[in-house]
Every structure is written in C-alpha cells, then in structure tokens.
C-alpha cells in the first residue's frame, strides 16, 4: 500500500478579501509540481466566501465538478437552466461540463460566510452533453458507515452520477471506531480529506483539514482517534 499525506498548512492559500481559498492541488496562481493531481482528481478547493460575494459567470468544459457546502448557502446558476438554485449543507451538487457550460456561484446569504469544498474530476468521456444535478443526503445515514455521494454514471450504485469510474463518500466516525474501506480496484486510489477530527490509517495520523492519499491496495482500515467527519474521493490512478 502506498500513502501520501498532505498537511492542512502545506496547501496553497489565497486571500482575495471576499474569498479565502485553500488548494490541495495546483490551481490558479498556486503551483507545486509535487501536487498537480491525485490520479483523476484534479482539484480539491476548500473555500470560504464572504456574504453576498462569489464567482461571476465563467466557462468550463470536459470536467466533472462536484460542490459540497459545509456551512452557509450556495446559489448556483448556469447556462443550462439560467435560474438561481440553492444548495445547502447536507446537499451535494454535480455538474458535467462536457461540451461547455457557463455558470455562476455566489454566497446566497446577506450575513453569513459560505464554506464549501469544490472537487474537479477528469472525466473518462469528453464532449458529452452538459448536465446538472443535486441531491440531499441524510447525515444519519453516514454514522459509522460510508455514505456514497457520487458514483459512475455507468453503475447502479447510489449517489449522484459523473462520467468517471470514481466514487465520493462521506462518513461520521465515532472515536475509537475502526472501519475497513474496500477500493473499486487496485488501480484506484482514495484521497481522504479530514473535514474535522482526528483519524489514522496504519501509522499515519491526520487531523482537521489534513488529507491522506492511499493507493496500490484493495482495502485499508481507518480508525477515529476522536469523532471525525471524513470525505473520501476514490479515482482511477
């Protein structure tokens, strides 16, 4: 089994006033040749957006984009529907950019900050028809078990769908609980973001906003050193 740990403080950071952004991988003005991507996982941004602020209309193509609000309210509008949609904590949003789409993302609150993770996964099919979906997931369904948020459009697995043989899961793991994760294949890797808490894989401990990448294995165990909220992104390597 191969592992790589990315401590929270080692991420790229940008403070734009209205936006505080932490980049797990090279993005915008942040470049680290050792952190270009993790397999098909190209972007994992941990953003805090000021009230009433956000990203104006901008284009994407041939990328699977997943957004997970942690706190606050996200408002999304794109060229497929041209209407503002609200995405709140507990919900997940997916957008297959495909042949091309324009979209805007703003903080929907006049007073509260918005915290979210945005994930970009390189697709296994280019120039598909753009598509959008969002879904609410019950937090009780991830108490000490993996809850699938996103999976391949070619499978019947639970969750929202993307054009890649990938899986995104979340788990709220109680202190001292150990759970085994089985990968889709040995050709897949799993990038685990510790949203909050403290956990260990083998001898590697990782704390809030640290991340640990695991590859070249068909299974591994995670132990919670304290109550932990973990986000797992499994992708082809």
Radius of gyration: 17 Å
Number of domains: 1
Output the CATH topology: Jelly Rolls
Low-confidence stretches are none
Multimeric status of the protein: single chain
Query: Count of DSSP helices?
Result: 0
The helix-and-strand class reads mainly beta
The name of the CATH architecture is: Sandwich
Helical content band: under 10%
Q: By CATH's scheme, which homologous superfamily applies?
A: Jelly Rolls
- Compressed to H and E, one letter per element, the order equals EEEEEEEEEEEEEEEEEEEE
Q: Major beta sheet, specifics? A: 9 strands, mixed
Q: State the distance separating the first and last CA atoms.
A: 13 Å
Shape assignment: globular
Strand content: over 45%
Number of strands: 20
User: Which CATH first-tier class would you pick?
Assistant: Mainly Beta
Q: Provide mean pLDDT, rounded.
A: 96
Topology:
Elements: E1 2-6, E2 12-15, E3 19-23, E4 41-49, E5 54-60, E6 64-71, E7 74-78, E8 85-87, E9 91-96, E10 101-107, E11 114-121, E12 131-136, E13 147-152, E14 160-162, E15 167-173, E16 178-182, E17 188-201, E18 204-207, E19 211-215, E20 219-236
Parallel strand pairs: 13-14
Antiparallel strand pairs: 1-19, 2-3, 3-4, 4-11, 5-10, 6-9, 6-11, 7-8, 7-10, 9-12, 13-15, 15-20, 16-20, 17-18, 17-19, 17-20
Can you walk through the features of this model?
The protein has 237 residues and is an all-beta fold. The protein has a single domain, classed as Sandwich (Jelly Rolls). Helix content is 0%, strand content 57%. The protein has strands at residues 2-6, 12-15, 19-23, 41-49, 54-60, 64-71, 74-78, 85-87, 91-96, 101-107, 114-121, 131-136, 147-152, 160-162, 167-173, 178-182, 188-201, 204-207, 211-215, 219-236. The strands form three sheets. Strands 1, 13, 14, 15, 16, 17, 18, 19 and 20 form a nine-stranded mixed β-sheet that branches. Strands 2-3-4-11-6-9-12 form a seven-stranded antiparallel β-sheet, with no helix packed on it. It starts with a strand and ends with a strand. The mean pLDDT is 96.
């Amino acid at each position: 089994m191969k592992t790589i740990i990315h401590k929270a403080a080692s991420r790229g950071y940008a403070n734009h006033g209205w936006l505080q952004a932490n980049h797990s991988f090279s993005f915008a003005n942040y470049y680290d040749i050792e952190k270009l991507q993790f397999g098909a996982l190209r972007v994992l941004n941990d953003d805090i957006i000021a009230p009433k602020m956000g990203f104006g209309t901008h284009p994407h193509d041939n990328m699977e984009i997943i957004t997970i609000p942690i706190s606050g309210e996200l408002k999304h509008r794109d060229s497929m529907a041209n209407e503002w949609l609200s995405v709140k904590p507990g919900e997940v949003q997916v957008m297959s950019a495909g042949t091309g789409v324009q979209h805007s993302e703003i903080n929907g609150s006049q007073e509260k900050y918005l915290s979210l993770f945005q994930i970009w996964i390189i697709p296994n099919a280019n120039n598909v028809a753009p598509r959008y979906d969002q879904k609410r997931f019950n937090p009780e369904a991830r108490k000490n078990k993996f809850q699938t948020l996103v999976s391949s459009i070619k499978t019947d697995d639970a969750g929202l769908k993307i054009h890649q043989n990938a899986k995104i899961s979340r788990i709220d793991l109680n202190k001292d609980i150990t759970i085994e994760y089985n990968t889709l294949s040995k050709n897949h890797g799993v990038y685990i973001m510790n949203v909050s808490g403290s956990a260990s894989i083998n001898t590697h401990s990782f704390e809030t906003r640290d991340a640990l990448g695991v590859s070249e294995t068909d299974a591994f165990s995670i132990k919670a050193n304290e109550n932990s909220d973990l986000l797992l992104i499994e992708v082809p390597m």
